[in-house]
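Data availability (excerpt). The following record was deposited with the supplementary files.
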Amino acid sequence: MLSRYFDGKALEMISLHGKMVAELSARIAIDAGLDTAEICFVEEAAMLHDVGVCRVCAPEIGLCGSHPYIRHGVLGREILESEGMPRHALVCERHIGVGLTAEDIISQQLPLPVRDMTPRDPAEEIICFADLFYSKKPGRLEQQKSPDKVRRKLASYGEAKLQIFDRWFAAFGSSISGD
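Predicted structure:
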């Protein structure tokens, strides 16, 4: 499906990033005891979670769309809803950072609809958590970030975001390589 929205290097980058997030997400889902159908959903949704970047302006990763990068979640939701994948679409919208609240959107004046965009079930939390460990920067796609590096980045968004990460790490962190 990604090849409908990307080509060339962008397709390679988004596919590899999705694969890395999907592999970690599946490992976490298995360790968390999710059933087979839910593990399958987690893998699929993780592969597609960044489909919305096809419409953003991010020249550093070869993307020349018209929207700011922060909108890739809502754009992905639009794309996957049009593809008849409403649950996958919600993963797109809710995977930014550890999720965005309506208050975050207002206080940071983000160019997003004002609504809650936080993960609401274990599958969404797992994908959001796994995504934090992988970059879309060329040359770093397969390098898993350390939990400390993820925490340092999240710290700039406040204590509440760190608390969410710490809660997820307590639940899912045993699946992180090297820990």
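Summary of structural features: The helical segments are 8-31, 36-48, 72-82, 86-94, 102-107, 122-131, 147-155, 159-172.
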